[in-house]
Amino acid sequence: MDVLLLGASGRIGHRIADELLARDHSVTGVSRSGTVDDVDDADFVAVEGDATDAGDVAKLATGHDAVASALGPSDDESPDRLVDMITATIEGLRRASVDRLVWTGGAGGLYVDSETLLVDTDDFPEEWEPIASAAIDAYDRLADVDDLAWTYLAPAALIEPGERTGEYRTADRELVADEDGESYISMEDFAVALADELESGDGVRTYVGTGY
Ligand SMILES: NC(=O)c1ccc[n+]([C@@H]2O[C@H](COP(=O)([O-])OP(=O)(O)OC[C@H]3O[C@@H](n4cnc5c(N)ncnc54)[C@H](OP(=O)(O)O)[C@@H]3O)[C@@H](O)[C@H]2O)c1
């Protein structure tokens, strides 16, 4: 598969690039600078682009089989830039006639029980609320889209650099937690889940949670 990867220079994006390349996919990795450090593979090319610009996304996406995103706003930007990014990405795919999008989303909009979202739980860290709300707003943009085969794939509540075990669980619109109630996934295993979703299409038009 020829994949356009938005956010390839980021912490999660970098691991998605590694996972896709290990599966012999071709990856065009987008960042604002046009550089992606430490990915050295004949099937990888780094390109410059602004994911808040639908014209840029359309130009870059053209000719690819699918678009994956691990986009996130920089610390010095408003979390709401995420909504600009998903809006431009949706429009860019339409203009490029690329149908498949797997978006790295947020866990905040996943249900922890039948009526409570993770973001609304008492223990949810206050400092994460702005980006969690922006990620839910981004999901709302995607939820309205019925002409693209999108998947909104959310990490567990906690995602960190770690080990690639190849093991993980998913749940539709629900937080995935272990028997002790801990919701965690390594960035490496999240990349496995994203690559599996790209290849299988099991979660088309679904908000999917991941974790152990
Ligand atoms: N538990 C959770 O729900 C959870 C936890 C962590 C992360 N996340 C989500 O996962 C996503 C990725 O997280 P991360 O930690 O990997 O983020 P990150 O390291 O900050 O990476 C963000 C990526 O987005 C790119 N980017 C930002 N603005 C751009 C623009 N206008 N045009 C093109 N590229 C742009 C950056 O590239 P350059 O800066 O190089 O241009 C970088 O590659 C985020 O949406 C984050 O909210 C969710």
Automatic annotation (TrEMBL):
<dbReference type="GO" id="GO:0016646">
    <property type="term" value="F:oxidoreductase activity, acting on the CH-NH group of donors, NAD or NADP as acceptor"/>
</dbReference>
<dbReference type="InterPro" id="IPR016040">
    <property type="entry name" value="NAD(P)-bd_dom"/>
</dbReference>
<protein>
    <submittedName>
        <fullName>NAD(P)H-binding protein</fullName>
    </submittedName>
</protein>
<dbReference type="Pfam" id="PF13460">
    <property type="entry name" value="NAD_binding_10"/>
</dbReference>
<dbReference type="InterPro" id="IPR051606">
    <property type="entry name" value="Polyketide_Oxido-like"/>
</dbReference>
<dbReference type="InterPro" id="IPR036291">
    <property type="entry name" value="NAD(P)-bd_dom_sf"/>
</dbReference>
<feature type="domain" description="NAD(P)-binding">
    <location>
        <begin position="7"/>
        <end position="198"/>
    </location>
</feature>
